[in-house]
Design goal:
Blueprint: E1 35-45, H1 51-62, H2 72-98, H3 107-127, E2 131-140, H4 144-153, E3 156-163, H5 170-184, E4 192-195, H6 203-218, E5 226-232, H7 236-240, H8 245-260, E6 267-272, H9 285-294, E7 299-303, H10 312-328, E8 333-337, H11 344-358
Parallel strand pairs: 1-2, 1-3, 3-4, 5-6, 5-7, 7-8
Helix pairs in contact: 1-2, 3-11, 4-5, 6-8, 6-11, 9-10
Amino acid sequence: MLDAKSPDGEPLFTGEDATRPDHAPQDHPRVPPAKIGILLANLGTPDGYDYWSMRRYLNEFLSDKRVVDYSAWIWQPLLQGVILTKRPFSSGAAYKSIWNEEAGESPLLTITKAQTAKLRAELEAAHGDRVMVDFCMRYGNPSTRSKVREMVRAGCQKIVFFPLYPQYAGATSATANDQFFRALMREKWQPSVRTVSAYFDDPRYIDALAGSVERAIGAMETKPDILVASYHGVPQRYLMEGDPYHCQCQKTSRLLRERLGWSDGDIVTTFQSRFGPEEWLRPYTVEEVARQAEAGKKRIAVIAPAFSADCIETLEEINEEIRESFEHAGGEQFTYIPCLNDDDAHISALAGVIEDNLKGWI
């Protein structure tokens, strides 16, 4: 009996349960039982915080035309000559300050593994070995290509691809999907696929967000004067070109406020992580928290609804740089409310979204 080969020369299928189909000739390649893959995707992480690990990661990230859409003949000389000479040092120092030294990996990777394990347990409890749950990263490892290959080899004839971004943006959800479809282009036997839409207004996600706010505030001696909902920024131009990200962020904040039963003005929506000379979505978080302190709001809490897992932008940027801006302007009490991470309510919400996308397949 033959083992089919992929275009890369690897066995096409894996697993002890791979067998020759009924009524097939004896030399037919072995095929595993059909499964459905659920492939989670997040932004990515460097393999380490040393210079070369950071340079490889930043080069892949900042060379993505979905992230920086300037002409390559202008952008690449600047990226390769100036930015990638200096930035790996500063970014490496930032990663070092939050690195999970025990596991030898970034917090984003640690948390994504935990999310995947909980979702796998929940979905396998419901559907048994008919589903295969795994995760990949858009940049860095494990790569999207490698995980698509594993799923096809394991017999996944259908794949639900789930970018873990509550709000859609071209620079996040779209580029994750781009990479997924590039991986599919290399498969001889392509599975049927579904990509999960943004879930920014899903009641289960809003409930999970609200629960995290209620728990955090319930543990405080004094309620904060205002809650800052800080989202990752994108250039203002993207909104003008049709990207729905800004509108979806605003709706998430409104739904969260309504779910909490708060008044207008109790939550302010801001945007962080500005990069480059362009105007980005405003207000900028680092400036707005200082303005709130100067206006007399001495106690604030900050939540990051656009991030499904804590990462460099939350653990370092919010909890260090943005905190410093607030305190320097006279703020007294700064509370960062962690991302939903592998909280049970979050896992239940994500599992519900996945089940919605499995309808008709299982």
